[in-house]
């Protein structure tokens, strides 16, 4: 018989000592009931608990002991509060069980909040007060690892610390920012007009005027990037939005080409994007029918003027003509080999008299009936495949043909090109998306990833590491070649892969990631995961521009934010001696911009896509977030940051560094825009050397943003060195040891003396969870799943990325029926509570053994136990709230603590209590006969990780600086 959940020192079989230890762990970091706003929702605002620790060594360095993992294991600012409509608990999940003790009514207790009293900040002479890291994305779409610019020196004798050849800077964690280019803006931030034509852009370096630049009314303004004096723009107004806001968006008017009679020729220049549907015809019948219904439904979400195309593939690739209503034509290609572009043009009979537009690519409003009919009549091509073989799929050929159609669309014959140039200088807007729907791997022709014999397994991580992949290199190179061709026509490849097996998205990743495309992966096309994700895919980039439709089709120049962009080109302008190391995110180097303008601000230390300050990407949506990394080391040790222009008013008295992000793009309705974000950062004093405690005292470090940046750096390293998993983990360990050694307070040789300031205390636990996440896994995860999760980590905002690294865990029980953030630890597993885990790609509900027994006894259906039904309803509502907004739609499951699905939660938890444990927790669980809180794993717990970290930090080498003692030593 199950026990009652009592408000005592005992929790259903746990003795008083174990319960007290759990309470002490949970109280180390208590959350206040206040709610704050984050990037995309409301979150519990954390308050650091506990009194200040004793001063270390000289009495300086009040902070948090590193040994207290319970406090450091909670996500700061990431526990979300949700208010959603009530929904009744589904009683159908309950099963008949033996009679058990009923749940007791809760007793309400008042919550207690704790606050940390930090040391007083001592300002350096001649410097303004730096602002603390906001730990949130600001209105400009920016979030920094350091809120103060760390001017440092470059040590030319310092060697790289890993195979990745990334030298750790003096700050250990580099200065970086997460920037969301299409973050929505208010109406007051929009400006109609070309800034270059109005004298608002520097003709020397291309930077734009802004509110931070020095200007003399009516005379000149000084560019903060190159210090050039430029004449004040004509019709200058002090009320210009650029002089009042950090971020402004210029809407550049464009004239449509006109005919000889002066009328606008609408057919001469289409301004809407092109969509090509590439459909796998080898799907099972029920999945193919569900896919066709979803595609037909999405036609209502496309602009009527947009061009559409249809390609189906199976053993052959079929290209359908949509411009003829009397007789539908289909061009069938065998797809056994790679076709040259000219060869494809000849096969499709594309000539000057028979162009692509109007045949294979036609306006939706003109061919909707034909397209709908073709999709409805599409038949399954997998009826004759033997059971021991895979279907023949020519996926690579189908994608190659789609790319060729877009190339032919923008290739003008010589005679027409001269006529078009004389009529108008405005070319056709290049914008397109290829939507690939596939239910299995390519087995024929270019892009093949596996043979047709099912006895031949798909490649795994170990095969890639050992080089035992006969198809991988050719398929990867084929899609990498398509990547540049897609970029030239400003189109992206979006892949919807629904299969229980791998489909080959690992080989496609370059063509998808670097063009701004999207991966949506699941199990079946007739599952809710695909249907919901497919709808939110269109909601995310909004091709019909609903803001424009809400204005009744207002004239060009209307001030509103768009959710997506095409043909994006972006760059960075910086002050002197501020260098850009690179960008992490979906982009390529803008070769055309590099030929016309120098990239003097490019750092010799390249991270991600580096060596330039100009990048491009085919498509972008409102949530895509880039990581810009900066090299803050001065080129010489003379002067540093304070002396460089300290008396020059044009450099803002030498106490700030200037950075400007410029994004040029085309909206889905063909409008050209330029978004300019200009910011300045306070410069930390750097004479004679930078003081680490300066950043600690001013709380200038954003540990959540830093963890996301490092996770992206890890992914970038593993993409370049796929077989160097262990070396990358050692590089991460070295970084953490040096970081804690630099910013922590300790006495050499005494691990227990190590203390970290609260603004740093969560950073080790973030990296601990990163080491245990799927991004470092080789076993029990497929290469396709790894590519899928890396894809979203490299494009989503900080708040989403941190959930991928360290899931959020919430507890519900009779005493606290609302969501209560708890440590991601096995100590949070109790028989009398319900856990809700949000791991971004997975959302799971797990009932404790006692709760599950009550559910089986159907106490939730008894009016006497209404509070128990309300408890179950609260958990369901919070889970539904997460599912209602998450993109892509996550996997969702409900289970009990001993169910098979419980592994999804337990594998992400810190294994405090394992089958090897001989402590109080394991003994109590064994005595009670309940093993729900025992995690069967050989991995090291965070306690062992922290002990190894402290030992490595306080150990000093022969030279006294800890060199050579940077290994944590846990797996």
UniProtKB/TrEMBL annotation:
One MF annotation (Gene Ontology) recorded for this entry: GTPase activator activity
Domain (Sec23/Sec24 trunk): residue spans on this chain: 273-538
Keyword Transcription applies: no
This protein's record includes keyword Transmembrane: no
Species the sequence originates in: Trypanosoma conorhini
GO CC, any one term: Golgi membrane
Gelsolin-like domain mapped to chain residues: 817-903
Membrane topology category: Peripheral membrane protein
GO biological process, one term: intracellular protein transport
InterPro entries: ADF-H/Gelsolin-like_dom_sf (IPR029006), Beta-sandwich_Sec23_24 (IPR012990), Gelsolin-like_dom (IPR007123), Gelsolin-like_dom_sf (IPR036180), Sec23 (IPR037364), Sec23/24_helical_dom (IPR006900), Sec23/24_helical_dom_sf (IPR036175), Sec23/24_trunk_dom (IPR006896)
SUPFAM superfamilies with a match to the protein in the record: beta-sandwich domain of Sec23/24 (SSF81995), C-terminal, gelsolin-like domain of Sec23/24 (SSF82754), Helical domain of Sec23/24 (SSF81811), vWA-like (SSF53300), Zn-finger domain of Sec23/24 (SSF82919)
Principal cellular location given in the protein's record: Golgi
Residue span, Sec23/Sec24 beta-sandwich domain: 565-683
Protein name per Swiss-Prot or TrEMBL: Protein transport protein SEC23
UniProt keywords, alphabetically: Golgi apparatus
Subcellular localization(s) per the UniProt record: Golgi apparatus membrane
Superkingdom of the organism of origin: Eukaryota
Function: Component of the coat protein complex II (COPII) which promotes the formation of transport vesicles from the endoplasmic reticulum (ER). The coat has two main functions, the physical deformation of the endoplasmic reticulum membrane into vesicles and the selection of cargo molecules.
Residues annotated as domain Sec23/Sec24 helical: 702-802
Gene3D superfamilies: beta-sandwich domain of Sec23/24, Sec23/Sec24 helical domain, Severin, von Willebrand factor, type A domain
Family under the similarity heading: Belongs to the SEC23/SEC24 family. SEC23 subfamily.
């Amino acid at each position: 018989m199950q026990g009652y959940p009592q408000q005592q020192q005992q929790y259903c079989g746990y003795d008083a000592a174990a319960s007290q230890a759990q309470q002490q762990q949970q109280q180390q970091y208590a959350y206040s009931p206040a709610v704050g706003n984050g990037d995309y929702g409301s979150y519990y605002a954390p308050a650091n608990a506990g009194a200040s620790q004793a001063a270390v060594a000289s009495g300086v360095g009040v902070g948090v002991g590193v040994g207290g993992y319970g406090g450091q294991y909670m996500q700061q600012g990431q526990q979300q509060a949700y208010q959603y409509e009530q929904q009744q608990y589904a009683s159908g999940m309950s099963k008949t069980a033996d009679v058990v003790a009923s749940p007791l009514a809760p007793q309400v207790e008042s919550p207690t909040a704790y606050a940390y009293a930090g040391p007083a900040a001592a300002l350096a002479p001649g410097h303004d007060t730096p602002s603390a890291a906001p730990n949130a994305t600001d209105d400009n779409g920016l979030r920094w690892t350091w809120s103060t610019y760390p001017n440092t020196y470059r040590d030319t004798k310092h060697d790289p610390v890993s195979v990745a050849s990334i030298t750790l800077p003096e700050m250990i964690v580099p200065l970086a920012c997460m920037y969301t280019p299409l973050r929505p803006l208010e109406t007051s931030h929009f400006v109609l007009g070309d800034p270059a034509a109005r004298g608002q852009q520097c003709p020397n370096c291309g930077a734009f005027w802004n509110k931070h630049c020095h200007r003399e009314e009516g005379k000149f303004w000084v560019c903060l990037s190159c210090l050039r004096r430029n004449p004040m723009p004509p019709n200058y107004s002090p009320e210009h939005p650029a002089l009042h806001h950090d971020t402004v968006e210029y809407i550049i008017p464009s004239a449509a080409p006109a005919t000889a009679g002066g009328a606008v020729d609408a057919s001469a220049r289409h301004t809407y994007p092109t969509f090509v549907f590439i459909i796998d015809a080898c799907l099972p019948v029920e999945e193919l029918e569900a896919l066709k219904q979803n595609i037909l439904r999405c036609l209502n979400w496309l602009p009527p003027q947009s061009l559409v195309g249809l390609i189906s593939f199976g053993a052959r690739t079929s290209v359908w003509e949509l411009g003829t209503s009397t007789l539908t034509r289909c061009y069938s290609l065998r797809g056994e080999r790679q076709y040259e572009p000219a060869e494809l043009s000849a096969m499709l009979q594309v000539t000057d008299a028979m162009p692509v537009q109007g045949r294979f690519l036609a306006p939706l409003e003109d061919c909707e009936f034909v397209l709908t009919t073709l999709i409805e009549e599409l038949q399954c091509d997998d009826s004759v495949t033997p059971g021991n073989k895979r279907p023949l799929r020519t996926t690579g050929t189908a994608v190659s043909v789609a790319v060729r159609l877009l190339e032919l669309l923008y290739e003008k014959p010589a005679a027409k090109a001269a006529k078009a140039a004389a009529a108008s200088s405005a070319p056709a807007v290049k914008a397109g998306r290829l939507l690939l729907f596939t239910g299995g791997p390519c087995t024929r022709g270019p892009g093949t990833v596996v043979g047709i014999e099912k006895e031949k397994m798909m490649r795994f991580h170990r095969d890639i590491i050992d080089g035992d992949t006969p198809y991988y290199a050719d398929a990867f190179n084929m899609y990498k070649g398509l990547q540049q061709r897609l970029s030239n026509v400003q189109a992206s490849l979006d892949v919807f892969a629904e299969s229980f097996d791998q489909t080959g998205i690992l080989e496609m990743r370059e063509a998808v990631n670097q063009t701004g495309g999207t991966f949506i992966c699941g199990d079946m096309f007739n599952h809710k995961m695909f249907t919901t994700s497919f709808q939110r895919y269109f909601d995310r980039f909004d091709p019909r521009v609903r803001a424009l439709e809400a204005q009744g089709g207002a004239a060009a120049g209307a001030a509103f934010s768009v959710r997506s962009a095409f043909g994006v080109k972006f760059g960075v302008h910086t002050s002197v001696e501020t260098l850009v190391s690179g960008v992490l995110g979906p982009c390529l180097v803008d070769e055309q911009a590099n030929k016309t303008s120098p990239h003097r601000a490019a750092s010799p230390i390249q991270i991600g896509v580096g060596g330039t300050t100009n990048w491009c990407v085919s498509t972008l949506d409102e949530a895509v977030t880039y990581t810009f990394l900066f090299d803050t080391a001065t080129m010489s040790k003379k002067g540093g940051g304070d002396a460089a222009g300290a008396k020059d008013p044009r450099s803002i008295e030498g106490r700030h560094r200037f950075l400007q992000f410029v994004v040029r793009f085309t909206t889905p309705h063909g409008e050209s825009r330029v978004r300019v974000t200009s910011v300045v950062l306070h410069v930390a004093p750097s004479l004679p050397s930078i003081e680490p405690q300066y950043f600690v005292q001013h709380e200038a470090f954003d540990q959540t943003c830093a963890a996301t940046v490092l996770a992206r750096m890890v992914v970038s390293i593993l993409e370049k060195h796929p077989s160097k998993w262990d070396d990358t983990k050692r590089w991460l360990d070295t970084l953490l040891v040096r970081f804690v050694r630099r910013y922590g307070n300790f006495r050499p040789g005494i691990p227990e003396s190590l203390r970290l300031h609260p603004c740093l205390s969560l950073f080790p636990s973030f990296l601990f969870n990163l080491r245990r996440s799927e991004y470092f896994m080789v076993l029990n995860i497929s290469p396709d799943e790894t590519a899928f999760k890396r894809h979203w980590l490299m494009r989503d905002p900080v708040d989403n990325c941190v959930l991928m690294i360290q899931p959020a865990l919430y507890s519900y029980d009779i005493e606290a029926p609302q969501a209560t953030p708890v440590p991601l630890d096995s100590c949070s597993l109790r028989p009398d509570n319900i856990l809700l885990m949000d791991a971004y790609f997975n959302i799971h509900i797990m009932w404790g053994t006692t709760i599950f027994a009550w559910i089986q006894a159907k106490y939730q259906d008894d009016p006497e136990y209404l509070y128990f039904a309300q408890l179950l309803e609260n958990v369901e509502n919070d889970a539904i709230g997460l599912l209602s907004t998450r993109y892509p739609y996550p996997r969702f499951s409900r289970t009990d603590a001993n169910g098979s699905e419980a592994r999804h939660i337990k594998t992400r938890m810190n294994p405090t209590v394992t089958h090897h444990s001989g402590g109080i927790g394991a003994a109590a669980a064994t005595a009670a006969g309940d093993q729900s809180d025992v995690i069967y794993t050989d991995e090291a717990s965070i306690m062992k990780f922290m002990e190894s970290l402290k030992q490595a930090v306080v150990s000093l080498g022969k030279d006294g600086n800890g060199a050579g003692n940077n290994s944590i030593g846990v797996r």
